[in-house]
Amino acid sequence: HGSLFVPLTLLLCVVLFQWEVIQRTLNGSQFYTFSVCNVGEREQDNWLRTTFIQRRPSASRVFVELQFIVRDCNSFDGASLTCKETFNLFTSESDADVGTTFRKGQFKKVATIAPDEITSKNELRINTETKVVENLSRKGFYLAFQDIGACIALLSVRVYYKTCPATVKSLASFPETVAGGENQALREVSGVCVENAISEELPRIYCTVDGEWVVPVGQCQCKPGYEEVEDECQECKAGSFKAEASGDKCTPCPANTQELDSGAVVCPCMDGFYRAPNDPPTGPCSGLPSAPRDLVATTSAGKLLLTWSPPEDTGGRTDITYSIECQRCEGMVCQSCGEKIRYEPAGVGLTDTKVSVSELDAHLNYTFTVEAHSGVTVLTSQAVPPANRPPSTSDDNLDVTTYTVLILEKNSVQIKDLVPGTAYLFRVQALSSDGSPGGSSMEEQFETSGTEGNQHGQRSTCFFLKNETSLIHGFCIFLFRKRNSHTRQGPEDTYFSSSEQLKPLKTYVDPHTYEDPNTAVLKFATEIHPSHITKQKVIGAGEFGEVYRGILKVPGRKEVAVAIKTLKPGYTEKQRQDFLSEASIMGQFSHQNIIRLEGVVTKFKHAMIVTEYMENGALDRYLRDHDGEFASFQLVGMLRGIAAGMKYLSDMSYVHRDLAARNILVNNTLECKVSDFGLSRVLEDDPEGTYTTSGGKIPIRWTAPEAIAYRKFTSASDVWSFGIVMWEVMAFGERPYWDMSNHEVMKAINEAFRLPAPMDCPSAVYQLMLQCWLQDRSKRPRFGDIVSLLDKLLRSPDSLKTIADFDPRISIRLPSTSGSDGSPFRSVSEWLESIKMSQYSENFACAGVVTMDQVLQMKNEDIKNIGVRLPGHLKRIAYSILGLKDQTSTLSVFAV
Ligand code: AMP
């Protein structure tokens, strides 16, 4: 690490007094020496001075290495009195070359140089001595050698300083650094992380006087997607990944993930595999569980006990739970069993493979479906036909999970609407009048004939009870089970009804048709005793009073988290009825994607509506808070859930009128459920509602033109609103039509303008939005079509890869050149606020980006490097910068 400063040849000494240049032969080679040898004379003062030696500014300490010969004074006869055996080294600093001017007084003595070995007459001894010249501060210096009467020859002078060489330590590179001197024994040097490495703390190290690096501080680490290989950060090899900046190596992609090219930060799930919201993004992906197997129903103590075996394939997960779906049919009309029957321990979230069902009605035909769920079905239960349903094409003789129970009072039954080409298993069990079970028949298998082409169910099988004596006491239970065989089955078929039977399941009854609205509430909602309700915390404000989070604990039932809507004191009877009308409506619905009514309190002073609790609150807010954090397929999964809820409502002929993301609630598994029912709600409650000339209140930007124009509210107008919800979801809760006024929105819609595609919106999804916004309502898709299309998209993730064209200046409303008042942005934080990216203010500041000029210089890579990781955020910032640069275009209209 010593670095040569001045080669010897340059050290040509230019000022000589008495010294002379002598050519000598030493050890066979010839070279020149500067010599002086006035040993016999008194008071010698002979000087030899170097040329001007320029100094590197940081080198305040230099080493002078001398090679010289001194003759033994004893070898000079009679000169021993005056003869010397040492000489002196001097130095003088200067800012300029003074040429041959020489002033002795300007020189300071550095050292007396004495030989270790004296040269006698016959033997030459070369000495090497190194002296340090410290505290140099001017541009250069001279060295001088003073002889005071010795016989000496100077062979070489080497002048050098020491450096710590340029190095890479702990992935930080440090520049060559001149070693310090006495006054600064350790020089602190800061380094920079090597390419593709980052550190939280500025990397530092110390350079010692001896030119050695010691004590590195502040480790650099390879950024995500890179690993350390011999002082460098190299991209993770194909098939491996690294999610964080760390000293770790890249790890192979976990099970069921796609192996990307090199440099992967995460391995995305393979098609058909998912990560649950709580799964680490670095963990394996899991498949959907297959259907539960071997569903069996038995009766005991007046109850029906359903048992089954776990799915054959759990998709590699341990968090399997089961839920029971129940349909009851009265003649041709089937509907969800809803609150009417009781499950023990519960109808959902079962971890055991059994459930007992009670409070079944006689004369009714029940169909139970057991669904298996896991952490990943959360996303996909809204996304693909539930995995637990029988596969839609199946050539193997799989048991399906459908079990039908009939309670009869007679000893024969005709089973209609069977699926052709399907095997059915039947068992008959006697039941006494108090519900306790009697003996049961053997299981018998029958097969329906027919082929796929035969769309209608068969009505041919007839059975007789074998154990007729049991009948004397009462009913009998008739169990039958369907075994799949070579039959194509759509999910709907599992309800065990023909297609005519499915539609309509049930029609919504307007509580207004009841003369006394209180009767309606009692009919559709369960009365809860207030002592079973515990309010915990206010979570929102409804039109009629506060909304609380709380606990519902009904004796004999598991306690559940609930939302409690209250009616504020001082209400009128009309307000009370309006308030409770929401429960009358909600109580008629039973669907996974409709907020579930637990019950009402009407018989006490403080009326309450109790519904299931949705941990993540309203969808618009939730998406705004998680802007950019979900992939398209997750957003489309949410939309699928909302569409399924809306299909259910439209099948029941219920028109919502106020479908908007603010009226969708999200639970902790990201399931979306439609909420906000009620008679006067649209008119009164919604802050988005705008009074129309006819006195009603309408949320203009969500409402179809015909509903605004002549109050034609239909499921088709709900479809228009659903299109707006799709836009809100894909834009992470952005306000539709941004800051345009209601009037401007109506005018634009009339002129056939429509909202443009949100950023990163799959083209197929945007096309569906545009379909929902067709002027002619009869041409809009129906909710059934929407659910099917969204299912299709979710089943083939590739279909979401084509992204709709969009113009950042309009679609994310990026201010083109200036702040809201039209003047250019005064600060980086003002700009970030305008594009709703304030959370990155600190990242910009820390990276030293403090002026808008600096912002304009930033490249995409720079934005990433300062810590903006989410692709949506990266794009928003990058597009805004592009927009700032491109001052010429100002677009004011949006796409047709
Ligand atoms: P609403 O009167 O139905 O609009 O409710 C007012 C607010 O209370 C909503 O915006 C939600 O933030 C909250 N809220 C209402 N129902 C629930 C629920 N079931 N779970 C969680 N939060 C709810």
From TrEMBL:
GO cellular component: dendrite; plasma membrane
Catalytic activity, reaction form: L-tyrosyl-[protein] + ATP = O-phospho-L-tyrosyl-[protein] + ADP + H(+)
Domain of life where this protein originates: Eukaryota
Residues covered by the Fibronectin type-III domain: 288-396
Record's compositionally biased regions (Polar residues): 447-457
Region (Disordered): 434-457
Signal peptide limits: 1-24
Residue span(s) of domain Eph LBD: 1-169
GO MF annotation list: ATP binding; transmembrane-ephrin receptor activity
Entry's localization field: Cell membrane
Chain residues that bind ATP: 539-547, 565
Entry's transmembrane regions: none
This enzyme's EC code(s): 2.7.10.1
UniProt keyword terms in alphabetical order: Angiogenesis, ATP-binding, Cell adhesion, Cell membrane, Disulfide bond, Glycoprotein, Kinase, Membrane, Nucleotide-binding, Phosphoprotein, Receptor, Repeat, Signal, Transferase, Transmembrane, Transmembrane helix, Tyrosine-protein kinase, Ubl conjugation
Domain SAM: 823-887
Single GO biological process annotation from the record: axon guidance
Primary location recorded for the protein, binned into one broad class: membrane
Pfam families assigned: EphA2_TM (PF14575), Ephrin_CRD (PF25599), Ephrin_lbd (PF01404), Ephrin_rec_like (PF07699), fn3 (PF00041), PK_Tyr_Ser-Thr (PF07714), SAM_1 (PF00536)
Matching SMART domains: EPH_lbd, Ephrin_rec_like, FN3, SAM, TyrKc
Gene3D superfamilies, alphabetized: ephrin a2 ectodomain, Galactose-binding domain-like, Immunoglobulins, Phosphorylase Kinase, domain 1, Transcription Factor, Ets-1, Transferase(Phosphotransferase) domain 1, Tumor Necrosis Factor Receptor, subunit A, domain 2
Class of this enzyme: transferase
Name of the featured protein: receptor protein-tyrosine kinase
Source species of the chain: Sparus aurata
